[in-house]
Amino acid sequence: MYAYRRMFQGFLIILLDFRFQQFDMLPDFIGYGMIFYGLQQLAGQDDFFNKAKIPAGLLIFLSLPDFYQANATNGLVEFNMSTIGWFYVALGVIQSILILVLVYYLSHGILNLAENRGLERLIHSARFRWNWFFGINAVLMGVTPFVMNIAPGLLNVLTIPFIVLALVSFVLVLGLLSVAHKELGEDVQV
Fold this sequence. Notes:
- The longest helix has about 35 residues, at about 80-115.
- Strands 1-2 form a two-stranded antiparallel sheet.
- Helix 1 packs antiparallel against helix 2.
- The chain is mostly helical.
- The protein has one domain.
- It contains six helices and two strands, in the order H-E-E-H-H-H-H-H.
């Protein structure tokens, strides 16, 4: 298995959230571990991959509390401060920021390798996908606290479109890893 594919699979595990009772059947910490391992294999190719290991490593540990959620629901979004508590809100904000940093380093590492090899299509793809990911997730992180404080009852209605766009941005990152695997022809075996 190759490093980009390993990271692709890690991001896919993070994206999918299957719960049995309150337990996550595809724990995010396994996904972040796979990403960390893939980055470790690519660290010698570009310094951005080496830098990306820091947020990936932190996310392994910060995602451990997500494995079991006593108040897990089957709904798309349910927000109630009395059930999730401020700890989980703060943890979610920190994780969101670290994911942004991780995707920044990852996409820029791919961008640098593509520039070194003159792969114009991959250069454009890496830039576009990073900009899309950052823009959507930054807006989502910026809008959510205001909606929580101003109109908590409207949180689901106002954030669902952004959540859908954030999922699309996550899928674009998966696509970037797939294209990078094909275009860069990595010879690093994992």
